[in-house]
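Page 42, continued from yesterday. The earlier attempt failed because a stray header line got pasted into the input along with the sequence. Redoing it now with the clean sequence only.
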Amino acid sequence: MSHPFDPGYVREPFLTLCADYPGTDVYPTDQFRTEWGPIFHRGRLDGSARVLLIGQDPAQHETVVRRILVGEAGRRVQGLLSKLGITRSYVFINTYLYSVYGSVRAKTRRAAALVAYRNRWLDALLVGTQVEAVIALGTAANEAWQMWTATPSGQAARFAYAAVTHPTQPESSSQNDKAKLAAATAKLLKNWNTALQTLAPAIQHPDQPAALIPYGETWGAAERPPIPAFDYPAGLPAWMCEQDGWARRSGADALAKRRNLTVTVPKGVLP
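This time it went through. Structure tokens are written below.
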């Protein structure tokens, strides 16, 4: 049985980018969970990407599987791309290599070393490549894009571009209020529909032909497809690709085993 996977950082300039990443001297520990380590990307690094997507920062799921946007936000973005006919030819990077702890100060956001390293990734993914469109998720990603477009490489580039509402903004803004969640979701999807109108004409080489079907006021089942296996590292177990319930077991003795389970977390691992 064949198991597709992402081969990782096997060619330049990505080999060097992954060997030469910034640490706590650039990402302060009072603003980032540097103990989780840097997480670089998800998607194609072989030059076949037609869409670049810029996210914000990695979270718990991403920390475990070492790829970005693999949780609920990732599934929603996967659906957005599929509406453009893009099911494989994409690449994602984040604004920040490390998970944000609290908030990021303006001085840190504009730190020369942080911005320069991110711009090296953007240069590698955009200069002389086949990318046709760029999507930014949220304010931080849009700021990252604007900083790159101010560089010589960015000034010379021409891409269809859309800055869209972050895919999990409805949950973060509604505070468990169902009415607020529904209203925020409908507002987000209206924003995404506007972005689709901008992006669709630029996608000249989709993975599969796709009639542009706009979103309604909430997510349809097909608009949250699973993350493809070929985006994950080799050997990842199937349960790590689920949304929740990681490593859940069933059976007559499962409850007894859980009752006797002790988990020790090393000091400093959790905030």
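Notes: Strands lie at 42-43, 51-55, 90-94, 133-137, 160-164.
Reminder to self: strip header lines before submitting.
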